[in-house]
Amino acid sequence: MTKNVLIAAISAAALAAIYGFSGVESGLKVGESVTPFHPTHISGPDKGTETCPPCKYGSVPAVQAWIAPQEKAEVVASIGKVLEGSEAKYEKSSFQGFMIMLTRCDACVEKANVYATGAKTSKIGIATLAVTNEAIKNYKVNVDKEMLNTIFVYKNKKVVEKFVNLTNSKEDIAKLEAAIAKASS
Questions:
Q1: How far lies 2's CA from each of 5, 14, 177, in Å?
Q2: Residue 168: which CATH number?
Q3: What would the pLDDT profile of 43-91 be if each residue is shown by its tens digit?
Q4: CA 105 – CA 56 distance, rounded (Å)
Q5: pTM
Q6: Is 125 part of a structural domain of the chain?
Q7: How far apart are CA 62 and CA 156, in angstroms?
Q8: Which domain holds residue 176?
C-alpha cells in the first residue's frame, strides 16, 4: 500500500513538473465569459481612465494577466514582453493585452506605478485593481499568498485558455504565446 501511495505521489509531481500545474486554483474556467470591471489604467492606451477592457475592446482576442503584488519582477516583465510583442504580431486581429496589477495597499499601487513607468510598453494596458474589488469575486481570482498570477486568454469574451502561476521559463512563455496565436487566428 505504501509503495502505491509513493508511486502515485511521484507520478503527480512529475505531471506537475511537465505540465506546469501549480496546485493553486484561480480564475474563470475555459468557456466562461469575462465580465465588465473598471481598473485604474496607469499605462497604455487607456492611461488615466477606468475603462472596462471587455466593454471597450469587445470580441477581439485579448489577454488579461492578473498579477499579485508578490509576483517576481522578472516574471511580470516576461509576461509584459509577450503581450507587447503579441499586440504588434496580431495587429490584424486587433489583439489586446492587459496587465491587471492587484493591490492590497498604497505600497502595492506605488510598486505597480514603478513597474509601469519602467516597463517601456506602449501598446498594452497596465492597470491597478484592489483585491477588495468586486471583479476579484466575479473573475474567481484567488488572492491568497500562493497565487502569483492568473492569466486569461479569451476571444469573443469567452476564456479559451487559462494559466495560473505562469513562470518566465521558456516552456511557460511558449505556452502563453501558443495560446495567444490560437486565439488570434
A1: 5, 18, 41
A2: 3.40.30.10
A3: 999 999 999 999 999 899 999 999 999 999 999 999 999 999 999 999 9
A4: 28
A5: 0.85
A6: yes
A7: 9
A8: 24-184
